[in-house]
Design goal:
Layout (H helix, E strand, L loop, with lengths): L15 E7 L20 E6 L2 E5 L4 H8 L7 E5 L24 E6 L8 H7 L15 E6 L5 E3 L5 E7 L5 E8 L2 E6 L11 H7 L4 E5 L18 H11 L4 E4 L7 H14 L3 E3 L5 E3 L16 H7 L5
Parallel strand pairs: 3-4, 4-5, 5-6, 10-11, 11-12, 12-13
Antiparallel strand pairs: 1-2, 1-14, 2-3, 7-8, 8-9, 9-10
Helix pairs in contact: 3-4
The chain binds zinc ion (ZN) (2 copies).
């Protein structure tokens, strides 16, 4: 399965745009049964006009690097939801960015009580677990810690709101606003009882698009309680309570094949017609009348054609 997307060119402000470079949870998978939704672990590109953010460094960040070989900004802001392996293991393979001496990669970590990702990543990427340490790579890393709930403010004036999510060791939800549009990324999270959580509902209220952890179905959840993940049904409940206009499900279970996910998507859209299950390499212009699916190297499928007709907002 070829996955070398064409470079994305953002010469002008195209609004609030995200691209899913990895949507699989827990561990990467491969094989023909994953051809449509993809097997890479979480990595999402967010564009606020020309301003780029990268959320998470799962194995999908390899393809992000390949897709932006020529147009990546010198300073890359990498926002971690948290540091579990499926969200960090791709970082040394973020090529060619990490091999560029002029590149600065700023990481942001908000689930460790203010501690940055630096000490954890230094433990992870070190012998014998990994042959080289991050400081041996050509780029410069600057690791920033914050406490989830704070608003991140960047030197160019950009702001990103955050919230702490219920997950082992915590996870950070992000809210991006640009051009009158609002995008919320809510993964990894286990829903609470009662649900929806009022603070979270306020955080995502009125979002044009919410990306949500739907690793399990409601039927599967009872045997996976306490594992830190949620269901698409709980995503719909949160979206409908909070007036969220469209919903994308990510952190897909490694055992959920394309066939299973297409069936799940049909059930999802019966409950919320503007909802869909995210596909690797898919690009979404938040609030645009139509979403755009650009999975390089693959043919359109019936399901994808249906997806194109869904209004995102
Ligand atoms: Zn995860
Ligand atoms: Zn996790």
């Amino acid at each position: 399965m070829s996955k070398y997307p064409e470079p994305t060119i953002c010469a002008a402000d195209q609004g609030l745009v995200l691209r899913f470079w990895g949507v699989r949870g827990s561990t990467p998978v491969s094989g023909p049964q994953y051809a449509e939704f993809g097997g890479s672990t979480p990595c999402i590109e967010v564009r606020c006009g020309e301003r780029m953010f990268v959320v998470d460094a799962g194995s999908g960040i390899y393809n992000l690097g390949q897709g932006h070989r020529t147009d990546l900004p010198r300073d890359v802001d990498l926002l971690f939801t948290h540091l579990h392996l499926d969200h960090t293991a791709g970082l040394p393979f973020f090529k060619p960015a990490v091999l560029d001496a002029d590149r600065v990669i700023n990481t942001y970590c908000g689930n460790l009580g203010g501690e940055s990702a630096g000490p954890t990543l230094d433990r992870l990427f070190a012998p014998p677990l990994f042959p080289v340490t991050l400081d041996k790579l050509c780029c410069t890393f600057n690791h920033h810690g914050f406490e989830a709930g704070q608003t991140l403010t960047f030197p160019d004036g950009s702001r990103v709101d955050t919230i702490l999510l219920n997950h082992p060791q915590g996870s950070v939800g992000y809210r991006f606003e640009h051009g009158g549009r609002r995008l919320c990324l809510i993964s990894d999270i286990e829903h609470s009882d009662p649900w929806p959580d009022p603070e979270l509902a306020r955080f995502v209220a009125g979002a044009d698009l919410m990306v949500y952890d739907g690793m399990f179905t409601d039927g599967e959840y009872p045997t996976c309680r306490g594992w830190g993940h949620s269901t698409w049904q709980k995503g719909v409940e949160l979206a409908q309570t909070a007036g969220v206009k469209a919903l994308a499900i990510i952190h897909l279970h490694p055992a959920h094949s394309d066939t299973a996910l297409r069936d799940m998507e049909a059930d999802l859209q019966a409950e919320m017609p503007t909802a869909f299950i995210a596909r690797e390499s898919q690009s979404i212009t938040v609030g645009a009348p139509r979403s755009v699916s650009r999975r390089a190297g693959s043919r359109p499928t019936v399901a994808r054609e249906v997806r194109r007709r869904i209004k995102v907002a």
